Amino acid sequence: MTQAAQIISFQDIKDTRAEDRKAGGLAMDQIKIRGGNRLNGNIRISGAKNAALPLLCTSLLTDTPITFSNMPVSLGDIKTLSAVLAELGTDIRLIDENTMELGTPTLKSKRAPYELVRKMRASVLVLGPLLGRFGEAEVSLPGGCAIGTRPVDLHISALEEMGAIITLEDGYVKAKTEQGGLVGADIKFAKVSVGATENIMMAAVLAKGTTTLHNAAQEPEIVDLGECLIKMGAKISGLGTSTITIDGVPALHGCDHSVLPDRIETGTWMIATALTGGEVTLENGRLDTLTALIDPLRKAGVQIEERGDDIFVHRNGKPLVGTDIMTEPYPGFPTDMQAQFMTLLTLCQGAGMVTETIFENRFMHVPELCRMGADITVQGNSAIIRGVDTLKGAEVMATDLRASVALVLAALVADGETTINRVYHLDRGYEDIVKKLGACGADIRRAKE
Ligand code: UD1
After folding, report:
1. Less Cβ around it within 10 Å: N or C end of the chain?
2. Closest residue to atom 11 of ligand 1, CA basis
3. Cα distance between residue 59 and residue 70, in whole Å
4. Could you confirm whether 255 is annotated as catalytic?
5. What pLDDT, on the 0 to 100 scale, is given for residue 179?
6. Packing angle between helix 220-231 and helix 194-204, nearest 10 degrees?
7. Strand pairing partners for 172?
8. Atom 20 (ligand 1): residue with closest C-alpha?
9. Is 368 helix (H, G, I), strand (E, B) or coil?
10. From the CB of 198, is ligand 1 less than 6 Å away?
11. pTM beyond 0.90
12. How far is CA 386 from CA 252, 296, 376, 383, 398, in A?
């Protein structure tokens, strides 16, 4: 532990939330963008939010500290989950701006409270590790959210198959194990779920016997979680395939782990470069995690090259060409890139179709893009996007993270100024957005409403 290490306390995080409340429940910052500047330069890709969240939960599985580097510490979601973990008894130390050390010597509380879980659904990921190590947990049901109802039934039924006794009371999932803890099971997920795969992997590493997960998610973030658990002493095989096998061990220990680079951030800045023109080097990206995005981007006319640890993106001045995509579990096209890809299509030659198969109600960016001049027709879970010559700046807002960043992309290329409200959505998942895009020549600033 360095002298500079700090403890992020639950109180600090509560204070930030009190500020939000003073501002009427919403952080009142806006982002203002004057469109039309090409992007040129370098952007360093941060650690992946969706890898970091389950990784942080592994700290519940051991009393010895785990050190995470390349951690996107400043993200809203990382702060929220840190608050949940601190409430449960995890000691959290900030070593430097991208390194955190966490360990859970004892359990202080078994309850992840509604006031935190409602802010971020991924808080449900504490359920598996709490049950696995301590045999009890109470986690608030996340409730509905802007991109559909998003139930947790797959998490619950898999834990029940492992011997957990689970009741739903007062909006909480209350779970405990019989004496002797969880037992390994043969689990066939009815649907591919990233969160359920992660939760059950973390429950199974300390269970008695072998757990096999069929129809498991194959996302790179699952592989990253599995690799960290293996460093902690877990026995896991089949990572990156649809069948994962976990042999339970009696105890796990701390380790050092570097968080996987964020493939969604990488893809987002690829589209920013494609829309505005210019040449951008994305440092610390992982092209191998983005195959399903690269193919349609290349079809649309974007040049993408791997140069050592960097990814070089440019557009050769030719117009973008319409192309179709459909979201699917990995290795298919990621639902978290759907909104950004739709923004790209608004300015293509011809038309493109976007079909969303993972989440209901994930087209909230459409009316806002239309207010900026886009031509989009939605029918069921598909949208037809007919390319227009220009988008126009407007005052817009979005109700989720990826929809918000899709509006940032539109603003970068629109005529005139765009004001994006509800910036707290962006702060949940994109580090230093103003700094990163500003350094490449975007006219972007943060302002108060
Ligand atoms: C994760 C990602 C999110 C991404 C999503 C799909 C994190 C923190 N979030 O979310 O950014 O958009 O994967 O790639 O990693 N479902 C059920 N029952 C369940 C669980 C899920 O029906 O118990 C459904 C969901 O409603 C959805 C689908 O399964 O329709 C996929 O959801 P899931 O993969 O679980 O998404 P998350 O893990 O919540």
Report:
1. N
2. 336
3. 16
4. no
5. 86
6. 10
7. 140, 169
8. 152
9. helix
10. no
11. yes
12. 54, 16, 6, 10, 22
